[in-house]
Amino acid sequence: MFFLAGLIVAVACSIITIRTLVGYTDLKLVYKLIVGTVVVLGWFAFLIVGFIRKYNILNAEAYPIVANGLYYLMGFVFILFIVIMMRDIVWYTIFGIAKLLKNDGWHIDPKNVSLLSKANFIVILFSIMVCAYAIYEGNKLPQVHEEFIYSDKINSNLRIIQLSDLHITRATSTTRLRQLVEQVNMLNPDVVVLTGDTIDDNVFLIEEQLNMLKEISAPYGTYSIMGNHEFYNDVYAAKRVLDSLGLKFLFNGGVHINNTNVFIAGIPDLNTMFERVNFWRTLNPSKKEDFKVLLSHTPIIINSLSDGIVDLVLAGHTHGGQIFPFHWLVKQANDYLAGKYKVNGIDMYVSRGAGAWGPQMRLFAPSDIVVINLLKK
């Protein structure tokens, strides 16, 4: 279903973009073919990269170059498409008003080929600039968001670092991962939790990247849960590998943290393994007086939780929209976008993630690391 929907969107957006850029101009055929090829490659990049990855066509040196190049092209054509749509909505509105006012309006007519060519050049140039900014935002180290939660239940202060949506693949930079781990360690966590989509590739082909996570230093442990992308890439293999790295995988289970009364529990991804979510098994080891933290990749889980069943939910999945204007679509699909919420008497923090899916790009949705300070009231 996802594949079919992606295919339909890619075909439709390719046609619209190509027709708008070169369909009404007097450019030579060779230039039209070049533009068409670039646009099609961009919109179908996720399918091309998926095919290369599935059949392991490229070696370890070539794959990151090709995959990142195609994904950046995908990000560019998406931004280009959005800018074209926004321009045309404004343009046709102004032209329509001019016609209503009995103005000839040829000098602002969207069908004026000379004017359209100039407008397209400006749009392409502007899209390149926006794309460059999005690449910068996507590759810089995450922002740190710090939250303070006070509760009578907490008998000992605890500092939890949340990392979400790293989306580690063969194309992931080991240098950036090392810097990310150093950033986490400098925040002096007691506990580190990874709230899903840590792995986004065959685990046996990303050992070098995953080994970086062994350097996370948290005296009371590092815990991980599954996201939808662990499911797509063999969740049980992901569990074995993460456990072997010391990132204890919580799958309908939980643990008491050191000598505190904080209980951290994790469930499978709600979207891909709904039938495997077992709250009774997950929370059964906890005590009534415990401060319960639930790790759920998908934030929408909070809608089905009643007051008192847990005290805090840490989630990810949304990326905060990652690239504008996906924010609106992501919010509609997940009810929650990013940041702190209070639902059914339960606190929840939704991380925008420290990585990215597809192109390592972000636009008005900066990556983040979340610091949760649990404090005695």
Question: Overview of this structure, please?
Answer:
- With about 375 residues, this protein is of the alpha/beta class.
- Helix content is about 40%, strand content about 15%.
- Strand 3, helix 7 (about 205-210) and strand 4 form a beta-alpha-beta unit.
- The model has no long low-confidence stretch (mean pLDDT about 90).
Low-confidence stretches: none
| Major sheet characteristics | 6 strands, mixed
Shape: elongated
Radius of gyration, whole Å:
24 Å
According to DSSP, the number of beta strands is 12
> Strand portion, in percent?
15-25%
- Terminal Cα separation, in Å? 49 Å
**What topology, given as strand order, has the largest sheet?**
1-12-2-3-4-5
* Helix segment tally: 11
Q: What is the typical, i.e. mean, pLDDT?
A: 92
Order of helices and strands: HHHHHEEHEHEHHEEEHEEHEEE
Portion of residues within helices: 40-55%
- Output the structural class: alpha/beta
List keywords for this structure.
single chain, 377 residues, alpha/beta, six-stranded mixed sheet, 11 helices
Question: Could you outline the blueprint of secondary structure elements for this entry?
Answer:
Blueprint: H1 2-23, H2 29-43, H3 45-54, H4 62-100, H5 113-139, E1 143-151, E2 158-163, H6 174-186, E3 191-194, H7 207-211, E4 222-224, H8 228-232, H9 235-244, E5 247-249, E6 253-256, E7 262-266, H10 279-283, E8 291-295, E9 312-315, H11 326-334, E10 339-343, E11 346-350, E12 368-376
Parallel strand pairs: 1-12, 2-3, 3-4, 4-5, 7-8, 8-9, 9-11
Antiparallel strand pairs: 2-12, 6-7, 10-11
